[in-house]
UniProtKB/TrEMBL annotation:
Role of this protein: Together with the chaperonin GroEL, plays an essential role in assisting protein folding. The GroEL-GroES system forms a nano-cage that allows encapsulation of the non-native substrate proteins and provides a physical environment optimized to promote and accelerate protein folding. GroES binds to the apical surface of the GroEL ring, thereby capping the opening of the GroEL channel.
Database matches in InterPro entries: Chaperonin_GroES (IPR020818), Chaperonin_GroES_sf (IPR037124), GroES-like_sf (IPR011032)
Subunit structure: Heptamer of 7 subunits arranged in a ring.
Pfam families recorded: Cpn10 (PF00166)
Domain of life: Bacteria
Gene Ontology molecular function: ATP binding; metal ion binding; protein folding chaperone; protein-folding chaperone binding; unfolded protein binding
PANTHER family, per the entry: 10 KDA HEAT SHOCK PROTEIN, 20 KDA CHAPERONIN, CHLOROPLASTIC
Protein name stated in the entry: 10 kDa chaperonin
């Protein structure tokens, strides 16, 4: 899917990384996301972002950024200053 939105300045768009609990046989036990894992995949970066690239996996500050919904999928728009580390 082509991203329909471009972040400005030092903003980054993240896709939430949701881990699901499954049994050894593959049955999903809990479909709810874990308590805000604070890990995301970079979908797009603004022009002032230099250290973070598309497809990087990052750890970000809890309760930062703004959730947006595009084509039934949720993303997080966050300042690069709120990204703590690359994985």
């Amino acid at each position: 899917m082509k991203m329909l939105i471009r972040p400005l300045e030092d903003n980054v768009i993240l896709e939430f990384k949701i881990e699901k609990n499954t049994t050894d046989s593959g049955i999903i036990v809990n479909t709810q996301e874990k308590e805000k894992s604070s890990v995301g995949i970079v979908i797009a970066v603004g022009p002032k972002v230099s250290e973070i690239k598309k497809n990087d996996e990052v750890i970000y500050k809890n309760y930062s950024g703004n959730k947006i919904k595009i084509e039934e999928k949720e993303y997080l728009v966050i300042s690069s200053k709120d990204i703590l580390a690359l994985l």
